[in-house]
Amino acid sequence: MVKQFHITITSLFLFSMASFVVILGSFTLKLLVSEGSSSCYPRLNRFSSPLTTSPYSYILCNFAFLSSPPHPHFNSSSEPKTPPVPNDNDTRPHSVTDDRELMRRAVSILETSCNPTPKVAFMFLSRGSLPLAPLWEKFFMGHEGLYSIYIHTSPEFIDEPPTTSVFYKRKIPSKPVHWGTASMVDAERRLLANALLDCANQRFVLLSEACIPLFNFTTVYNYLIKSRQSFIGSFDDPRVTGRGRITR
Fold first, then answer.
1. What is the pLDDT of residues 25-41, one digit of tens each?
2. Which domain holds residue 150?
3. Domain annotation covers residue 73
4. Nearest to 126 by CA among 157, 95, 105, 148
5. Please, are residues 165 and 133 in contact by the beta-carbon 8 Å criterion?
C-alpha cells in the first residue's frame, strides 16, 4: 500500500513538472514570435523620470554598465584633431584590426568637439548569431538615433542577418576568444574602443548572447542616460566553471 502511494505521488510530481515545462516553453515561444504585442515592453513617456529600482532590473544577465563624462567642448573656431566621426547609419565596417591602433583612435575621439544627441552603446560579446535577436529587434524598434550596436563574434562566423535587421553589419573586427581567459577582456576592450569611436555614445552596456531586455527601450534609455554611476554585476562561482577552475 505504501509503495503504491509513493508511486502515485512520484507520478503526479513528474506530470506536474512536465506540464510546467510545456507551459513555460509555450510562453517563451509566444513571446519570441508574437508581433505587435506591447505587453512585453510597456510604453512610457520618453522624458519620464528614471525609476528608483536598480539598473539590473532592465537587462537580465551579468553585464557591465559604464557611464562616461560628457565630451569636452572646445571653441567652435578650433579644428578637430581627427576626421569627423562617421554617421552611425553608415554600416560599413572599419578595417582597423590592430588593437593598439584602435585604442589610439578611441582615445583621440575624446579630444574632438562633439555635442550630439546622447546614445547608449549596446556591446554584444557572442560566439555567433544572437539566439534572442527577435526580442532585441522589438526592443530597438522605433528608437533609431538613440542607440548604437556592436557585436564581437568568432572570426570564423561570417553570416549576416537580413538587411532590415538592426544587427546588419554591426560586427566589429574580432579575434578568437576563449571563455575564462584574458582573451575575453581583450574582446570587451575591443568592443568599448569601437563604441568610443562614435562621440555620441555616452553610456556603454556590455551584453552576452544570453541577455534579454525586461523593459522597453524608453525606460532603459532614460535611466542610463540620467545615471551618473557605473555598475558592474558579478558573483562568486565556486564551481569548476568559475573560481574552481583556478588552482594554487
1. 555 555 444 443 433 33
2. 94-234
3. no
4. 157
5. yes
